[in-house]
């Protein structure tokens, strides 16, 4: 390297001296000749760099396009998409710049070394960019050919590779600046490790988290996740070394630290989406005072309701045998077992769900009563639809509850609702006692 620089310096002295003497010959004063000479040579170098850059870039693009069309390699298409030819062309003029700096700044030697170091730094960035474009093209090619890689957080691995490449680049720059052995760099690094750990703690934690997330397959690109702590509820767009981007259903973007995926709790709805069914867990609340025993003559009417006639016959026989065996006095209906309108309604809901085309029959299906409260007696439906599409799911659930709410009156039950203003006025008209309890709207 020193021999090469010596040769370049010898040739640069000739070119610089020739242009300098030419300026003096043209009548430029000696005080200004050095500066003008430097500016002229710098402009010539810049033009030459752009010419070389354009030629190399054009040739590389033609070669990549030709090979891509001839061999039909998707990898080359991804290389082109990630600007491989652009970065490779940008590094092509580096040798030209290194050779030109001593020529251009021959009259200003103090600038030569700093500019040479800047060129080395530029070379490091370009080499990292070239390798990164190759890695990105390779990853995109793997995603296209293998579905396993399509939803993996590969961006975090690319960032780790960039970090490693820049680390070796930093060693190279350190050696060029100080002229010392690379081992000295590690000595300095060890002395400043505590400060580095403090500065890069988020990066280190994110790196550890991204490894756990990927290894345990906790989150993939495209998963629907919910993180209550950060009000994130939507689809994962990107997983990097330090952040996770979630597009909420209102189209806003929430950025969450990657480390939070292992330090805080979150819901991943991937299991629901893969199962093919989405859960319905909703209740119809009826007035408890509307629940009553059914008389024998009423059962004939209830048998006309599709889906529960056979259940009534079977249950009625079972109840009759039970009451006869124990000798209950049936003159009082509370003695022994009886059919109730609430029980028939619950059985009707179950039958309706089993026959509904939007319900998944292979997953859990249950109709149960929840604990009675001052809000009434809840009948909860626990079932799964046969689709996970949000719009279809809502339509199926609405269709079911539209029907069941309308069916309540056929079982002589009443839906519980809080008293509204119009209800209060109706109560006052029906019963004078309420006139003193409920204040009138009229002044």
From the helix content, strand content and strand pairing, which structural class follows?
alpha+beta
H/E element order: HHHHHHHHHHHEEEEHEHEHHHEEHHH
Q: What's the total helix number? A: 19
Q: Which percent range fits the helix content?
A: 55-70%
Number of strands: 8
Which parts are unreliable, with pLDDT below 50 for 5 consecutive residues or more? Answer: 1-12
Rg over CA atoms, rounded to whole Å, is: 40 Å
The portion of residues forming beta strands comes to: 5-15%
How far apart the termini lie comes to 101 Å
Mean pLDDT level? 78
The major β-sheet equals: 5 strands, antiparallel
Task: Tell me, briefly, the overall form.
Answer: elongated
Q: Which sequence of strands runs across the widest sheet?
A: 4-3-2-1-5
